[in-house]
Amino acid sequence: MIEAAFFIRTGQPIGTISPRLYGHFAEHLGRCCYDGLWVGTKAPVPHENGLRADVLRALQALPVPLLRWPGGCYAEHYHWRDGIGPADQRPRRLGLSCGLEVEDDNSFGTHEFMELCRRLGAEPYLAGNLGNGTPQEFSDWVEYCNSRFDTTLTRERAANGSPQPFNVKLWGVGNENWGCGGNFDAETYAKEYRRFATFLRHVDPGAELVICGTGDVRYTGDVWNTAVLRTLGPHIHLVDHLSIHQYWIHGGPETGFTEAEYYALLAEAATTEQFIKRTAAIIDAEAGGRRIGVALDEWGVWHPEARPWGPGDVDRRTPVTYEQANTLRDALAAGIAFEGFHRQCNVLAMANLAQTVNVLQSVVMTDGAAMWLTPTYHAFSLHAPHIGAAALPVELVHNAALPDGASAVSATASEKDGQVAVTLINRHISQPAKVKLSGSGTHTQAAGRLLAADSPQAVNSSAQPDRVALAELTPYRDGDTWYVELPPHSMATVQLQ
Ligand code: AHR
């Protein structure tokens, strides 16, 4: 049995854990939007105006405070006008993202997305098309969504069912423009951004604009971020957030991974915090004192089974899905990322898991009429008490080390309404852990929830939807000190009051 001890410093918050750090990302890719979130109004599965009912319920319970759409790479050839107006009159387009070609009937468009956000209580985050769109097209979308003036576009919005503006604050101005979004060099993209952003701000001076930054997977190094911000120079005021993407790709196969691969994935998840810190340092150096948030608007595990980015089969007949198994290991990796998000909450402006349903590290999966929650769903659920809370410093008193030198047990804590929430991860693959929690406050009651399974390889499926599920955990007390016992490869949240 491993022994670990932490001291929670209440009353000295690091900052606020914005609900935007628990955001999600839904792209028109594979079965995320079509078939996952949206089944259409004629679907055999229960739906609410075309939104899949069981998925809706699951996401409402999570919660989902922020949702980015429609891409990803899809955003860079999406023309928003295709997705408004009577569904049967919308054009059928060749949907393109990440090397896929699909038939897209545009039945899930702006109004359907806004309705989804309304039902989820999610803030919408729209990614606009800089790659093959124009500043006019993008400005029109902002006007259509946000303007209070009586214009042809806002009359059209009203005729399509929404007299009130949608008031979308967050707008991504391009996506991965170093790659799928136009293969720009940094300087050329920054100049395009400047042109687009100028007109977007004219339409809505309150819009929060997100500039495309680097993604670790295919564009390594931080050179892009420095060059983009430096090129903006005196126009840096046009930038509110800098988007970065990180996918963890070094954990071997989705299941059947070795012990070394188990630890490799967790270690890679931990590097996300370094990426956030490095990006914040570049902003500090290049933004001339302007406060620009780091927007980690795509993150998560990308297993080889979800196939590499690109066209895939030459004849394009085999369905390519970007789907992958989601194990307890992946949920622990998400928990490790959350620890870093909390510590960096003063510079991290948002984070969006890729992707919500069926694709990559989804929280929900569907197969015909079946729907199940992935272990990553439960990781989010365990962290719900931290949303909007004050992040607290956690001091490591003593701990055991993993083979790679990392702490075997890790912890993050927050405080809200007099309650302290502590999430613990026992990363050790085979050893249980006894964890001692003490702090500067006195708490007389505690409750806990545990995410565990017999193996880190455990997955949920339509046949076994609850193989990895949350269970009650009972902390025990000795004076002002609380104790919990965690099985190997597990995660738990303890709430003290
Ligand atoms: O999430 C899948 C893809 O990964 C996104 O479309 C793109 O932005 C990234 O390359």
Question: What does this entry look like structurally?
Answer:
With 497 residues, the protein is α/β, with parallel strands linked by helices. The chain folds into two domains: 113 residues, Golgi alpha-mannosidase II (Immunoglobulin-like), CATH 2.60.40; 370 residues, TIM Barrel, CATH 3.20.20.80. 24% of the residues lie in helices and 28% in strands. It contains nine helices and 26 strands. The strands form six sheets. An eight-stranded parallel barrel has the order 3-6-9-10-11-12-13-14, surrounded by five helices. A seven-stranded antiparallel sheet has the order 2-17-19-20-26-22-23, covered by helices on one side. α3 packs across α4. The longest helix is centred in the middle third of the chain and has 28 residues. About 1% of the residues have low confidence. It binds alpha-L-arabinofuranose.
Question: Which percent bin holds the helix content?
Answer: 10-25%
Arithmetic mean pLDDT: 94
pLDDT < 50 runs, ≥5 residues? 313-317
Percent of residues in beta strands?
Answer: 25-35%
Radius of gyration: 22 Å
The H-level CATH homologous superfamily of the largest domain, spelled out, is Glycosidases
Compact overview of the structure:
This protein has nine helices and 26 strands.
Key terms for this structure?
497 residues; globular; single chain; 8-stranded parallel barrel; 24% helix; 9 helices; 7-stranded antiparallel beta sheet; 28% strand; alpha/beta; binds alpha-L-arabinofuranose; TIM Barrel
Tell me the layout of helices and strands:
Layout: E1 2-8, E2 15-16, E3 23-25, E4 47-48, E5 51-52, H1 53-61, E6 66-69, E7 93-97, E8 100-104, H2 110-120, E9 123-128, H3 135-146, H4 152-159, E10 170-173, H5 186-203, E11 208-215, H6 223-232, E12 241-248, H7 259-286, E13 293-301, H8 328-343, E14 348-354, E15 364-367, E16 370-373, H9 375-383, E17 390-392, E18 394-398, E19 409-416, E20 419-426, E21 433-439, E22 446-452, E23 469-473, E24 476-478, E25 481-486, E26 490-496
Parallel strand pairs: 1-21, 3-6, 3-14, 6-9, 9-10, 10-11, 11-12, 12-13, 13-14
Antiparallel strand pairs: 1-18, 2-17, 4-5, 7-8, 15-16, 17-19, 19-20, 20-26, 21-25, 22-23, 22-26, 24-25
Helix pairs in contact: 3-4, 3-5, 5-6, 6-7, 7-8, 8-9
